[in-house]
Structures are given as structure tokens and as C-alpha cells.
Write a structure and sequence with these properties.
Layout lengths: L2 H22 L5 H8 L3 H29 L2 H24 L4 H15 L3 H11 L2 H30 L5 H20 L5 E3 L3 H48 L4 H25 L6 H21 L3 H27 L4 H29 L4 H22 L2 H9 L17 H4 L9 E2 L14
Antiparallel strand pairs: 1-2
Helix pairs in contact: 1-6, 1-7, 1-8, 2-3, 3-4, 3-5, 3-13, 4-5, 4-8, 6-7, 7-10, 9-12, 9-13, 9-14, 10-12, 11-12, 11-14
Length: about 450
Amino acid sequence: MDKRRLLHIAILGAVPFIMVLGNSMLIPVLPQLQEAMGLTQLEVALLITLFSAPAAVVIPFAGIVSDHVGRRKVIAPALLVYGLGGLIAGAAALLLRDPYPLVLAGRVVQGIGAGGTYLLAVALAGDIFAGGGRTRVLGILEAANGAGKVVSPVLGAAVGLISWWAPFFVYGVLAIPAGLLVWFLIEEPPIKETRNLAAYGRALVRVFRERGVPLAATYLAGMAMLFLLFGVLSTVSDQLGPRYGIRGFAGGLVLAIPVGTMAGVAYVAGSYFQDRWEVLKPAILAGAGLAAASLAAAAVFEALVPLMAALGFLGVAIGAMLPAINMLVTSAARREERGLVTSLYGAVRFIGVAVGPPAFAMAIGLGRPVMFGGAAALAGLVLVLAWWLIKPDKLLVATGQEGAGSSDTPGSQAESTGNEASGGEASGGKEREGTPGRWRELEEEG
């Protein structure tokens, strides 16, 4: 592989890594932010919510726009906006006596930028690379996403040793140069044709008319798991100092346990699930059951070691579920519809991330047992609904309908497109020169 291609891979790999920092890097320093700005737990949770909610809104539209103007012309400005939002928040925290309103505004700006980053980077990789090279490159992007998940809480805690406002500047330092590199150094194939908005609407209506109930249940399962993960992480982060005396860098290492187990299991599970369609629903059911048991155990155990063991198993549960959910979502639509369906799924996941922290901040007022018990009940509800409503045979029928020789049959779904992942043909419906690439795991959640 020549140096130009290696440079493209390095630049594209930086995009998911930077995006994942959006929420996870702040979680270890939330107690410092709360103390420095005199916030309630609900107010500090809004720092997560007001990043994730705008991203959820932007994701589908970013895919559509990228299909008309090109991926690079969306990703590069999105990274600049993402970095600018971090600088706005950091400057406000550093210079103002009452920085909270402007810090929130900076987080909103960041979220808008985040909506046009990772999924489109996956799509762009699918546009640029072909064949086995595409599979390897998308694997690298997935690995970068997983590395970001593991590194982000540790990095946030380490940078937080400088000051509570320092992590905000990291976003600008990383994202703005990355945006410039994407703009000036990435080359993408030309656009051959586009679709109008009416075509998107017709595609979406057709998918939900044919497979709406099982697809909605699959969306709900993914959203609920990220709701639980980020709600738990934000609450545990707030409790580490006052309850367990763990602060700073050590707190970041503790929070890396559930995130790290989730990332590791998701990577292994995503590899194992390829072409094993019969295990997808059992994996979702087993993951939901393990999540319910883990959260129920967390309601009982107050000591740090058993609590973190329980949350480690929560990470295992979510890591097993998400790749299975992702594969069902990508298989629930024909090629020309798949990008829109997966983009909406990415938006729904961000909603879970947005709602989780404030919901848990309010629930903690009822007591830890009630909060964790309610979370366990939600995971149990996901288990029941998944058993009842998720029908893999109905979701996978979309691939079968395209013909035995299609590249979208279950046997080759592992090669479904980076294009399709975030705004490819269905999310925008454009044909590009070169064949589509593989998409295995959405990670957006930040």
C-alpha cells in the first residue's frame, strides 16, 4: 500500500477516535466540573445531553447532504465545528465568572459537529477503498473507535489533573487539525448521481411498512443499552469521590473497566457473528439478561470491588448485544434503503446517550437501590420485548429478496457498505465509483 493510501487511513482513523472522546472523556471530570461551577447533578448531566441530542438530529441530514456534495465536504467542516465547540466551552470555563451557559452552548456546537463525523468517515472509507483493502481499512476504523472508548476516560482524568477546564481544549487541539487534514489531503471518488428527498421518504415508509415492529424493537434495544451505560457511568463518576474517595486519574481508570469490557467484547463478538445469523437474537437476549442481572447486583452491592465487577459484566452484556443489533439493522433494508435506516439507528442511539445521564441524576435522589433496580427492570423489559418482537427472519428477509447472487445476501452481509452505514445509497442514495464497503459497528454514542 502506497504512502498516500496509508495517509488516508491514518486521517480517517483519527475521526472515530476523536468522536468517541466527545462524551467519554468528560465523564471522569464531571465531579470537578460540578464543584467548580456549583452545579446540581442534573445540571452537570446536561453537559452530556446537550452534546448527544444535537448529534442525534444532525446524523440523518449529514448523510443526505454528503450524498449530494461529497463526504469530505461534510466531514471536514464537521470536525472544525466539533473542535470549535470545545474551544468555546474551554474559553468560557477559563475566562468567565459564570461560564455554565456558554459551556453548554459550546457542547451544543460540538454535538452538531459530531453528527457529521464517524459514520461519514466509515462511508468515505467505503468509497475510497475496494475489495480486501476496504475490509482491512474499515477494521482499522473500528479498532480506532474501540481504542477511543478505552482511552477516553483515562485521557479525561489525566488532562483533568491540569484543571477541570483543560479537557475542553483537547477537542479543539485534536479535531481542528484533523478537519484540515481531511479537507486538504483526502481524495474521494466523484459523485455519479443523487436522489431527491421524496425518494428518501418513500424508502423509509416502505421499510417501516414491511418490517416496522421488529425494526423498532431493535432500535429500542440499542437505545436502551446506551441509555443504561451512560446513565450508570455518569452517576458512578459522581459517586467515586464522595463515597469511595477515588478522584482524578484513578477515577478514570475505574470508569475504563465497563467501557473497556464493552469495547473488547463488541470487537470479538462482531467478528464471531459474521455469517452466524442464527446467534444474533440469542446474543441480544443473553446480553439483556446479563445486563438486568448486573444492574440488580449493583443495587445490592455498595462496596467498590463488587460494584465495579457488576458494571464490568454490564459492559460485557452491552458489548455482546450491540454488534448483533447492528447486524440486524443493516440487514433490515435493501441496498437503496440501508443508509437511511442505519443513520436513523445512529440517531436513536445518541438519544439514549443524551437521556441517560439526566434520568439517572434524577433517579439517584430516590436512592441507589431504587435507581439500579429500575435500571435492571428496564433491561428486563428489553429482554421481554426482544424475545417477543425481534424477528430475525423478518429483518433478514430484505437481504434475501435481493437475490441469491446479490452482495447483500446473509452470507455476504459482512461486506455491507460503508456507504450504506451513514448516508450511502439510502441515506442519500448516491452511486459512487467503486463498490461499497463493510459496516459492522455503529459507535456513536460518544
